[in-house]
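Annotated sample (chain length 201).
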Amino acid sequence: MKRNLFVSVKDNVRDCLQNNKIKFFTLMFILFVALVTGIIVAIKCYSNASIADLSHYGLVSLEGGAITSSFFSRLLSLILVMALLLVFSLTKFCLPLAYLVLAYRTYLLGLNLTLMFILYGFPGIILSFLIALPCQLICLFVLSVYYIFLCDSLNNPCCVSRLNMRYRLKCFLFTLAVLIAVCLVESLLIIIFNGQVILVL
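Output written by the structure step:
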């Protein structure tokens, strides 16, 4: 049963991306540019940043057991992005706005990953490249596929009115479940590696 569900989801994702190759690769290129831009800005403008300035960035110190509150902060942020993408998917004219939301989130990812390295040195490398980067890239990929799925439903003549809303609700809940799992894994890895800081975008 679980295997059939996994195969079904995998096939649906593959078919959707094949039908929207241009949209998907355009979005991936924009996100790559945004990530690199965030890294460059962090190196040029924040090379003298200090841990005292932590609250000004998307980094939260885990001293005092803030892992639980940071988990819900990250989850709330992701839900907000999902809600925005859901609204923007209702018309093709909002596509630039959806790309802008995802690009800005990716820019912040590049900026804050670099700041982790600047502020924490070698521990920052572990946090950035072994934990935060993979988890956040998975989140971005899931959000991108989620948005493309929602847009694709508008072009499907079978998905109209109530059926369309049910399809969108299923997409929202399934995506939310995946993102919750990613956030949980990221939190567990932070605990295992005794991280000092966590990324909250």
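Annotation: The CA atoms of residues 139 and 183 lie 9 Å apart.
Annotation: The longest strand covers residues 59-61.
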